[in-house]
């Protein structure tokens, strides 16, 4: 279903771990939900928790979402699901 998204992610971020790549869309959707609900502080707490108490791979996925933009990642997911 998300074949072209995974091809894009693995092509662009092939040097990253599988865990990091798999969390890019997860974190993008989390970010959208938090921001749509105006829960900016909760978003920052979630991101901080991933960085401090989670794995380095989760933190790296957040960095990628911040750089790519959650809207762009979600759009790639949408277009690959068609």
Q: Any overview of this molecule?
A:
The chain contains five helices and no strands. Helix content is 80%, strand content 0%. It is mainly alpha-helical and 82 residues long. It is flat, with a radius of gyration of 12 Å. The protein has one domain (3-80).
Uncertain regions spanning at least 5 consecutive residues: none
Mean pLDDT: 89
Helical content band: over 70%
Task: Write down the secondary-structure element order.
Answer: HHHHH
Q: Which value, in Å, is the CA radius of gyration?
A: 12 Å
Q: What's the total number of strands?
A: 0
Number of helices: 5
The proportion of strand residues reads under 5%
Helix-strand makeup class: mainly alpha
Q: How many domains make up the 3D coordinates?
A: 1
Q: How would the global form be characterised? A: flat
The major beta sheet can be summarized as:
none
First and last CA, distance: 8 Å
Key traits:
single chain; 82 residues; mainly alpha; 5 helices
Write the layout of secondary structure elements.
Elements: H1 3-12, H2 18-36, H3 40-52, H4 56-68, H5 70-80
Helix pairs in contact: 2-4, 2-5, 3-4
Briefly say what this structure is:
With 82 residues, this protein is mostly helical.
């Amino acid at each position: 279903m998300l074949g072209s998204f995974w091809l894009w992610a693995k092509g662009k971020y092939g040097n990253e771990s599988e865990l990091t790549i798999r969390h890019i869309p997860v974190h993008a959707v989390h970010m959208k939900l938090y921001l749509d609900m105006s829960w900016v502080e909760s978003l920052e707490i979630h991101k901080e928790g991933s960085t401090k108490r989670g794995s380095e791979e989760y933190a790296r996925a957040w960095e990628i979402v911040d750089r790519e933009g959650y809207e762009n990642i979600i759009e790639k997911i949408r277009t690959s699901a068609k």
